[in-house]
């Protein structure tokens, strides 16, 4: 496969064109950012870890019936993906109160929500990625009504799978961010990544509110041992995949 030119560079990945216009190469970086890139740093090995975790989760989600942009991984920190037009939306699914939900509502961190909460944020750093109502989505024409309905349905399906998967890893899925794109056939696909960068993950066996953190909050909140936490998540994912324990959660009826 020949790599042509850099198409786009974001905070966590670089996208390159390939010899197939329908296929892009995503190069995962070790760079780390938080608070809309106001805080910057680097997490050693993060690119390869996130790429590997994401590839396994995309493969299992595909078996679960979720269509994604994932094709394969030609290198540990590289992922071949279907070319999509990313919708300018960050879709956040919350199972437990944490982060901005606590800051904006006064809910105590760790409060288990009665049902998953699906939120839409405008993907625009200059505006601070504001929370969107359905009427604002419609006003800004960021997605069609059909796409919004499909995204909510898919987000809840993905949440159902991921909660069970992470539980088998001994990890609680607190909340996570998704992005979706549309391919050349106008098909809605799950895109971006699913990793400790995009998920809030707590160690089930740990009760200390700081030691239990296994995600980018360790970087955001200067908790230390960031690389170790990412490595531990990777090892648990690989163990579950290699043991094929995930087969128990592949059926939506399970």
Automatic annotation (TrEMBL):
Recorded superkingdom: Bacteria
Catalyzed reactions per annotation: 5-amino-1-(5-phospho-D-ribosyl)imidazole-4-carboxylate + L-aspartate + ATP = (2S)-2-[5-amino-1-(5-phospho-beta-D-ribosyl)imidazole-4-carboxamido]succinate + ADP + phosphate + 2 H(+)
PROSITE patterns found in the cross-reference section: SAICAR_SYNTHETASE_1, SAICAR_SYNTHETASE_2
Keywords from the named record: ATP-binding, Ligase, Nucleotide-binding, Purine biosynthesis
Descriptive protein name: Phosphoribosylaminoimidazole-succinocarboxamide synthase
GO BP terms, alphabetized: 'de novo' IMP biosynthetic process; cobalamin biosynthetic process
Gene3D superfamilies, alphabetized: ATP-grasp fold, B domain, Phosphorylase Kinase, domain 1
Gene label: purC
First and last residue of the signal peptide: none
Gene Ontology MF: a single term: ATP binding
Family stated for the protein in its record: Belongs to the SAICAR synthetase family.
Domain SAICAR synthetase/ADE2 N-terminal: 6-236
Pfam hit, one: SAICAR_synt
EC number(s) stated in the UniProt entry for this protein: 6.3.2.6
Pathway membership, UniProt: Purine metabolism; IMP biosynthesis via de novo pathway; 5-amino-1-(5-phospho-D-ribosyl)imidazole-4-carboxamide from 5-amino-1-(5-phospho-D-ribosyl)imidazole-4-carboxylate: step 1/2
Keyword Transferase: no
InterPro entries: SAICAR_synt/ADE2_N, SAICAR_synt_PurC, SAICAR_synth, SAICAR_synthetase, SAICAR_synthetase_CS
Major enzyme class: ligase
């Amino acid at each position: 496969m020949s790599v042509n030119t850099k198409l786009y560079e974001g905070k966590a990945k670089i996208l390159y064109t390939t010899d197939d216009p329908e296929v892009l190469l995503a190069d995962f970086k070790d760079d780390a950012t938080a608070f809309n890139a106001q805080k910057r740093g680097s997490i050693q090995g993060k690119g390869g870890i996130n790429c590997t975790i994401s590839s396994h989760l995309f493969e299992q989600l595909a078996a679960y019936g979720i269509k994604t942009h994932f094709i394969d991984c030609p290198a540990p920190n590289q992922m071949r993906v279907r070319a999509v037009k990313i919708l300018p939306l960050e879709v956040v699914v919350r199972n437990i109160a944490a982060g901005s939900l606590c800051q904006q509502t006064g809910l105590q961190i760790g409060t288990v929500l009665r049902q998953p909460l699906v939120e839409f944020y405008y993907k625009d750093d200059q505006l601070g990625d504001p929370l969107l109502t359905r009427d604002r989505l419609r006003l800004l024409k960021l997605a069609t009504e059909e796409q919004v309905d499909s995204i909510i349905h898919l987000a809840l399906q993905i949440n159902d799978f991921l909660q069970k998967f992470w539980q088998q890893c001994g990890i609680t899925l607190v909340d996570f961010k998704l992005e979706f794109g549309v391919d050349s056939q106008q098909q809605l696909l799950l895109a971006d990544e699913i990793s400790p960068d995009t998920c809030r993950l707590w160690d089930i066996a740990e009760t200390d509110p700081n030691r239990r953190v296994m995600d980018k909050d360790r970087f955001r909140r200067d908790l230390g041992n960031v690389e170790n936490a990412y490595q531990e998540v990777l090892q648990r994912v690989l163990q579950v995949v290699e043991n094929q324990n995930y087969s128990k959660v592949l059926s939506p009826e399970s």
